[in-house]
Amino acid sequence: MDTDAQLTERDPSPTPDKGPEQGSRFARFLTRAARLRHRPVTLFALCLTFALVLSAVVAQPFLIPSSSMENTLQIGDRVLVNKLAYRFGSDPARGDVVVFDGTGSFVHREQGENPVTGLVRGAGAALGLARPAETDYVKRVIGIGGDHVTCCDRRGRIEVNGEPVSEGYLHPGDAPSSVEFDIVVPEGKLWVMGDHRAKSSDSRDHLGQPGGGTVPVDKVIGRAELITWPVGRWRTIDTPGSFDRIPAAAGTHG
C-alpha cells in the first residue's frame, strides 16, 4: 500500500459543493467579519429608536435653555419630564413645575424653521441633547382654573384665593412680582410664573394678549420631576408644601 501517495493526494482544505461552508477559510472569515461589523450599527439604531419612542410617550429629557427658573433650575440642567403625569385624570396642581407648548398663549406668531434643521433639532431635543423648540417653556404653576390670583398684598406677596403664598423657591433678591395683576384663571387654564421673577417672561407679560397670559391645560407636555444632569445637581423637583394652605376657588370643592 502506497501510504505516501495517499497523503499527497489528500486535499488539506476541502471545499464543499454548496452550503455555508463553501469557499475558502479566508472568504468565510471575511463574511463573518462583515456580519459582526454591522451589529453595532443595528444595535445603536434599535437603542435610538427605543429612546425616541420612550421620549415621545413616557418621559422626555428637557434641556433648560434660560435662567428664568433659577435657582431651582439652572441653564444647562437636564430635567426628566413625566409625560404621563396628567394623562389619566390628573391635572396640574399649584406649585408643579411644568413644561408646556406656548403656542397660542405665549407665542402668537408662526415660528419659521428649516424642515431638515427642525427634524435634527427635534430629535436632539427629544434626547435632551439640544435646545427645545422656541415655543416650549418651563414654569411653575401658581394658579389653576377658577383661582383668583393677585399681586401684591401689603407685604409684597402674591395671593391665591385670598391666601398669601410663601415662595421660598424664588431667586435670592427677587420680589414676588414687580408687576401688579388681578386675574381669575379661566377653567381649563393655568397661571404660570418663573422662579427667577426678574428674568422670567411668564403669564404677567401676556396679560393684554389673547388668553390673558393663561396657558391651556391641554398644552402641558408634562411635569418636570428630576434633574438628571449634571451629576452634582441630581435631585427631585418637589411641589412646595406652602401651596397646601391655598383654599379652593370660590364655587369649587376640594
In short:
This protein is an alpha+beta fold and 254 residues long. It is 20% helix and 22% strand.
Fold blueprint:
Layout: H1 3-9, H2 25-57, E1 59-63, E2 78-82, E3 97-101, H3 115-126, E4 136-143, E5 148-151, E6 158-160, E7 163-164, E8 181-184, E9 189-193, E10 215-216, E11 220-229, E12 235-236
Antiparallel strand pairs: 1-2, 2-11, 3-4, 3-11, 4-9, 5-6, 5-8, 6-7, 9-10, 11-12
Features:
single chain; 254 residues; alpha+beta; Umud Fragment, subunit A; 2 domains; eight-stranded antiparallel beta sheet; 12 strands; elongated
Fold and architecture overview:
The chain is α+β, with helices and mostly antiparallel strands and 254 residues long. Helix content is 20%, strand content 22%. It folds into 2 domains: 19-57; 60-244, Ribbon (Umud Fragment, subunit A). It has 3 helices and 12 strands. Strands 1, 2, 3, 4, 9, 10, 11 and 12 form an 8-stranded antiparallel sheet that branches. The protein has a 4-stranded antiparallel sheet with strand order 7-6-5-8, with no helix packed on it. The longest helix is centred in the N-terminal third of the chain and has 33 residues, at 25-57.
